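Q: Convert this sequence to structure tokens.
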Amino acid sequence: MKKLWKNFILLLLFLALVLVSANVISARILQVHRSERVVVTNRITDKIEKHLNSQAMTSDLYPYGIVPSQLANEIFYEKKSEWTALYGEEACPEEVIIHIFPGGDFDAVEPEGMPQYDDYADGSSIITYLSLSDIGIVKEESDGSSESIIGLVEYLFKDYSNQSIALLLNVILIVAVVGVFLYTLWISIRILAPFNKLSKYPERLSKGELTEKLPESRNKFFGRYIWGMNMLSDKLENDRETIRKFTVDRQKFVTTMVHGIKTPTASIKLLAEAIATGLYSPDGKINEKDAELAEKIKKNAGEIEALVSSAMEEGTTAIFDYDPKIEAFYRDKISEYVLEEYTNRLKMNRIPFEVKSEGNPLIKSDFDGVCRILRQLMDNAIKYGDGTGITLSFEKNEEGHFITVENKGVPLPESEVSFVFNSLWRGSNSTGVKGHGIGLYESRLIARKLGGDIRMRVHDNSTELILFLP
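A:
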């Protein structure tokens, strides 16, 4: 998910760069066009002023003898093709309007709506002053100089700024950024977050964590994946169940065979000792050859006994392979794991479940091993309890950590409690309950490899299995 957001940020920066670059390029193009237009308008204004200086005269109808429309036609419109060919269509104005101030009063006679010199509006118009050498209104400049102002020239251009296109481009890019963000957020929430959780399932399958199947997602994005993983889970569980059954049958066979061999082997050793002492000789004396053969028989019988003892030990020990990896983790991680694994299952079975914990101390142990033990304790509480309630409680004292799984229901007889952790042993309450009698045995072996232990405590109507961790 971090990689997705990293790529999104890079894409966001790229789109922002495109947006800024597009606006900068557009501004540069507008600036170049405006500079070209200023050059053209100055050239036209200069032509008009030269014409006025050479032909200026007074008139009652037209101030200074100037007919604005005729002058505009003569200077620009009749030669528009020449101006366009010389400077380009974008640089040349579309219209040229000449304004002459009557009466010589610049401020008083300015018509309403007369454009101002610095009024550029949206960049499609430019205003310039008209000045003559000897006539007109004297306008004082800030530097002490003066010029004779007789009017203004307004130049109107076609709008080549493409502002609507630039605005549309900005809107599209902004919408794209927002859309990419929302889509990335949607993918993160609806696809990647669930898949991150699903991606842990194969690892859990390999460790035998098969407490419940993967639920189908509402959006059906992972339908075949979930279906395939649940099939694989069923297959692995069936295989494990078959292996457990064969293991139990093998252990029972070995145990029966060992007990069958042990007694005759002891008898052979006794007979060999009797022969070696001459007990069965007619004269009661020791025969050296018989004694030598008897020693060989005793030696072979001793080897058989060693094999029998080894087979006996194997026959009473479940196949078990566990290598702890000690690390530090907080206790709440255990309760979170149990809640995640068993909440739905207990709700479906309508079994009340309660977790009691105070504080969140650090535990230094093997988290996977602890979870493996708790899965066995929880499964036993579900199988052998009466369904009226299960409680998971955590305590800590100077000795270490105590994790207790308590289930309601008729407990085992006190006389059987000492046997519950033996291999292949099942209690009197196991009738009709699926199992092989090796779960608690393996759980105790794990606990002891972690430096702790498990014990059972029975009450009038409940059973407690207590895991101790140093």
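The two ends are 37 Å apart (CA to CA).
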